């Protein structure tokens, strides 16, 4: 009989201990892990405090040097294409149009003072493919292509993950393409005319000497 009451006492004591631990964690959940957030070196060492956040209303801040969603400050992009060549998954698509000499002033300079020599009508990043490796940002000579702290950019429609940074309207791009094509054709015609003249002069040369 005494064994019977002993077991009841042990059960009651065990339940009380367990409930005490639960209550302690429950009360601790009203605390926060400090104001500094994840950038606080002690953030993950603190055992007390709220573990689960009310996401998406609250979120753990992203680390300072984290690599997240890309952004291209396109006005500083010189259209060099180094990022495209560096990307291991080919998720950057770029189209450039050579700037005509008379349009250099209109095309402008980067914030670092470098003259831009290409229009960039298309600069698309397929962020659904991007693995945020950072190879493209590392090679960008003007540092216009950067990772932002934005880590949550999920979409229902995959097409919305294709980001467009090009800075020309379709009409503007068409006009500049046409102008560049005409200038190229003119330069080619001039080259051919000069080659033909040189050939004719060469053909006349030996005849004139005879
Ligand atoms: S971060 Fe990596 S995968 Fe993403 S665009 Fe840049 S090079 Fe490509
Ligand atoms: S590497 Fe930088 S400057 Fe060159 S095309 Fe890419 S984003 Fe533009």
Automatic annotation (TrEMBL):
Keywords for the protein's UniProt record, in alphabetical order: 4Fe-4S, Cell membrane, Iron, Iron-sulfur, Membrane, Metal-binding, NAD, Quinone, Repeat, Translocase, Ubiquinone
Signal peptide: none
4Fe-4S among keywords: yes
Ranges of biased composition (kind: Basic and acidic residues): 188-197
Coiled-coil residues: none
Location of the region described as Disordered in the Swiss-Prot/TrEMBL record: 176-210
Iron-sulfur listed as a keyword: yes
Source organism, top-level taxon: Bacteria
4Fe-4S ferredoxin-type domain boundaries: 66-97, 121-150
Name this polypeptide is given: 4Fe-4S dicluster domain-containing protein
């Amino acid at each position: 009989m005494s064994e019977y009451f002993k077991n009841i006492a042990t059960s009651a004591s065990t339940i009380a201990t367990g409930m005490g631990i639960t209550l302690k964690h429950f009360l601790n959940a009203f605390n926060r892990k400090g104001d500094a957030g994840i950038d606080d070196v002690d953030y993950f060492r603190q055992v007390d405090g709220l573990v689960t956040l009310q996401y998406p209303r609250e979120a753990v801040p992203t680390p300072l040097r984290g690599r997240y969603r890309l952004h291209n400050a396109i006005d500083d992009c010189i259209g060099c294409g180094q990022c495209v060549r560096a990307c291991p998954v080919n998720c950057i698509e770029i189209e450039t149009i050579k700037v005509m000499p008379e349009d250099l002033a209109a095309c402008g300079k980067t914030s670092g003072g470098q003259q831009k020599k290409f229009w960039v009508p298309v600069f698309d990043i397929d962020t659904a493919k991007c693995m945020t490796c950072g190879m493209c940002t590392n090679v960008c000579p003007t540092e216009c292509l950067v990772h932002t702290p934005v880590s949550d950019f999920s979409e229902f429609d995959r097409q919305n993950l294709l980001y467009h940074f090009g800075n020309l309207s379709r009409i503007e791009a068409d006009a500049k393409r046409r102008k560049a094509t005409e200038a190229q054709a003119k330069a080619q015609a001039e080259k051919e005319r000069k080659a033909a003249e040189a050939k004719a002069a060469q053909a006349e040369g030996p005849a004139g000497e005879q």
